[in-house]
Amino acid sequence: MSETIERHEFGAEVGRLLDLVVHALYSDREIFLRELVANAADAMDRRRFEALTSESSALPPDAKVRIAPDKEARTLTISDAGIGMAKDDLASSLGTIARSGTRAFSQTLESAKAEDRPSLIGQFGVGFYSAFMVADRVTVTSRKVGSDEAWTWASEGQGSYTLEPGTRAEPGTDIVLHIKEDADEYLEPYRLDHLVRKWADFITVPVAIVRDGKDEAANQGTALWRKSKSEITEEQYTEFYHALGMNFDKPWATLHWRAEGQLEFSALLFVPGSKPFQPIENERQSKVRLHVRRMFITDEAELLPSWLRFVQGVVDTEDLPLNVSREMLQSTPALARIRKAVTGRVITELSNRAKRGEDYEAFWENFGPVLKEGIYEDFERRSEIAPLLRFRSSAVEGWTSLADYVSRMKDGQEAIYYLVADDAEALKSSAQLEGFRARGLEVLLLSDHVDAFWPDQLGAFEEKKLQSVTKGGLDLSKFAPEGGEADPVEGLDAFVAAVKTALADEVADVRVTDRLVDSAVVLSAGGAGPDLQMQRLLRRAGRAGGAGKPTLEINPRHALIRTLSVVPESQVPESAGMLLDLARIQDGDSPRDPAAFARKVAAALAQASQTPKE
C-alpha cells in the first residue's frame, strides 16, 4: 500500500499561512469545531442541491453530521453524508491553502433558481485549517457521490500532505483529528455538546455526538428568526427569549423582520420587560448575536450601539463570510450597513411605542438612563433619540417629554430649564427652584448618572435652548413673580463686598439675587463653564482645577442676611464661611470642614438657648 501513497507540497507558503490561520485568524481555539461542522453541513447541502437533478445524489433519510470522540485513541472524528470529494478535489481544496471549494461551487449556482440554491455556510479551504489549532495530525477520508473510490488526505500541517486510496462504504467525508496533548477538553462529549449548542444550534442539518456508543442529538435545527411571523406564537417568542439570555420576564417588545434587497438579513430582537440582574450600566457593549447562515459567529460584533445594549436577540445574514475572526468582521462594509439598518429599526419601534403609550413609562424606568447615553455619544442619532427621553418635572406629576415641556412654556420663554443633582427626591425641594416656582416656570429634574453630560451635547430641542438653572447670570426679570414684585432691598452693598473679600479664594463672585424666596443663599456656576453638577463630578474625579469656582448668590430679603449684614466687620469672615457651607449643603455637598461646621452650629444653638425670652 505504501507504494500508492503520494506526497505533495502545499500550494502556498504553508508555514506563514498556517501560523496566520491558527494564531491570528481565529480568536478562540474552539472555533475549529464550528468550522468543521459548517463544512460538513455545507457538503450535505450541496448533495441535497444536486439531488434536485440526479436521484442518485439523494441524501440518506438519516443523514447527519456525526461527532465521535475517542479518548483512548485521542482522536475526534467528524463525519458527514455530504457530496464528498474525489482525489483531485482533495488535492485542490485541501492541498492549496485559501482555495475555496465552496466559493468555486457557488459560482455554478448563478443560473440556478433562488429557491433551489442551498444556504452554503462556509468557505471550505481556510476554515478547515483551524483543525490544526487542536490537532497535530489530520486525516480526511472522502468518497464523492457517483464514485466507488475513496481517497485519504493526511497532513501534520508542516508543509506537505499525502494522498492514498482509502475506504468508505458510502459517499461522504470523515475528518479525523489527532488531538494535541493540551486539548483534552475536546475529547469530552459534554464539552462538544456545549460547543455545538453554542455555535451550531440552529443549522438545519442534524448534528449528533457519540456518547457511550449512542448518537445523541446536539442541535435544535430550527432557526426561529428564519420563520414567518405568522408561523410563530407568542409563547414560542417568549420561550426563545428566555433561552437566549436566561431571562424570566416577558419581553416588552419583540422585533422580527427580514431585510431583502441589496443587503439581506433576518433579525429577531427583544426589549426586556425588566432590568437584568447584573446592572446594565456596568456592561458597555451590545451582546446581540451575529449568525451567518444560521451558524453563530459572535455576540461581540456590536450590532447595536452601546446606548441600545439592553436589546437582546439574533441577526442572521447571508452577506458575511463565516471564516473570519471577530476583529476582521468589524471592518467589513456589510456589517456596517447591517448595524445602521438594525439600529434604525429599533429606534423606529421605540418611537412608535412612545407615541402610542404602550406602557412606555415602564420601559423608560428600566432603560432610560442607558438610552440617554445616545445623546452624548451619537451625533447622527441625537434628533431621533431626543423625543424618546422622559423626565420628572417641577410642574407636573409622573414623566414628561421635551415636546410636552415645550407645549407648556410661558409666552416669551426661550429656554428649556433643567436641574441636575444626585438625589431625585432632593431635587424637588432644591433652593435652585425657588425663583422659577415663584414665576410659574417649569424645570426638568434630572438625577441619572449621565445627566451631567448629555444636555450640552443636545444643546436645543425644537429651537429651544437647554439651560441649567445653576448657571449664573440667568435673567428672569421678564417673568414677574406670581405673587407680585417684592419690595427692593438696599443697604447691602458693603456686606456683599465684605463677603466677597472673605471668600475670594473659594468663590468667583458674591452677588444679590432675585431668584430665591425661602432660602438665604444659593450657589451658581459661571455662565460659560460647567454647571454645578459637572463641577461636583470634576472635584470627585480629582480634577477640581477644571471645575472653576462657583458664585455665591444672596437673598437680600431673608432674615438671616439682614441680621448678618449688621454684624461687626471682624465677624464677617466667619459669617461668610457659614453662608458658603449652607449653600453647599443645600446642593447636596458637604461643608468645607464638616467638623468645624458642626461645632459652629452647636455653639450657635447653645447661645440661642441661653438668650432670655422677652
**How many domains?**
3
Annotated CATH topology of the largest domain = Rossmann fold
Mean pLDDT: 85
Strand runs, count: 22
Query: Could you give the order of strands across the largest sheet?
Result: 1-6-5-4-7-3-2-8-9
Instruction: Give the structural class.
Output: alpha+beta
The CATH architecture name of the largest domain reads 3-Layer(aba) Sandwich
State the CATH class of the largest domain.
Alpha Beta
Approximate shape:
elongated
- Uncertain stretches: 98-103, 114-125
Name the beta content range.
15-25%
Gyration radius, to the nearest Å?
Answer: 35 Å
Q: What helical percentage do the residues reach?
A: 25-40%
Which oligomerization state do the chains in this entry correspond to?
single chain
Query: Number of helix segments?
Result: 19
- Distance from first to last alpha carbon: 123 Å
Described by strand count, sense and barrel closure, the largest sheet is: 9 strands, mixed
